[in-house]
Specification:
Order of helices and strands: EEHEEEHHEEHHEEEEHEEH
Radius of gyration: 18 Å
Bound molecules: coenzyme A, adenosine monophosphate
Largest sheet: 7 strands, mixed
Distance between the termini: 33 Å
Length: 272
Amino acid sequence: MKKPYSIRMRASRRGAHVSGAERIAEVGDVNDIVPQLLSRAFARSTEPDEVVVRCEKIAPHAMARLDSLDVVTLDCFDVPGCRSAAIRILESTGVPSSVAAAAVDLLASGASSSGRVMRGAAIMDIANGNRLEPDQERGVRASRFDWSYDAGAEAEHRLAAAGLNHYRTREALALATKIAHAPGTVAELCWSDDPEYTAGYVASRAAGYVRLPFMKRNSDPLGGRVIFFDAARGDLEQCIRYLQHAAVLIHTACKCLGPMSAEEYFDVRKRT
Ligand code: COA
Ligand code: AMP
């Protein structure tokens, strides 16, 4: 891209967040992207009373290009099974199982200091499970990322062929790819706070994006993200700066595998 812009939308009702989405596009395409993001703002069952769209120029030389994480879906159909698979996968990336289990409990019980959903991700020290994000209500929000036009189209095609048609998967995969490349990041755990959306994932550069269909029960309004951080591998301030501000374009599409059992997944990883 010669003249890229970050275009970000957030919709709220009575001050409460309703939805948000973002893109990176060439200046000439901003006119087309803004109405698409506005449609997203009004597509939810909650009608927003305020929608803010912000367009910001990005320096083209400052934009990092990343390969997408590959996607694998586990064929696990109950919440305890998906959560214990998540803990095993996190353990395989270097997160101690006690810290992984603490992260699952944290998201299940409301990760903000007031026991509600956070506005961004928690950051957890893998050495002791301590919280490292400066504000436990807000957390840290990854922003300024997108697929390149070609990789985005190819990723959408491959995800759809694997039965993953929901736009959330494509967007969560882009977000997870950015997070996986943050300095000091070991892995990420996520499930949505949308009561109707039960899927979640564990992601890391080593594990890929491992989709777990039932990280919570239907109609549960809690969810969130935990980023596992290793101080031996990176600086926390640099990590937070990268997550919030570094512009990232994902320029290769994901491979998609599965559905498969956790055992099959670990076998595949051993062989590759
Ligand atoms: N939950 C609650 N409040 C949120 C929010 C969220 N997810 N995102 C934004 N807000 C509100 C907060 O009040 C925030 O203030 P804060 O910084 O004190 O928390 C305020 O909006 C401004 O947020 P900011 O991030 O500065 O706005 P922005 O216009 O730069 O970007 C988003 C907004 C939503 C596009 C961006 O934060 C984001 O999350 N991008 C990723 C979107 C995405 O692809 N998600 C994948 C989901 S599967
Ligand atoms: P969602 O996948 O949009 O349902 O978001 C799930 C949770 O992830 C939210 O409850 C927030 O805690 C957190 N979150 C939302 N947006 C971001 C972001 N941009 N970066 C990091 N964490 C986020």
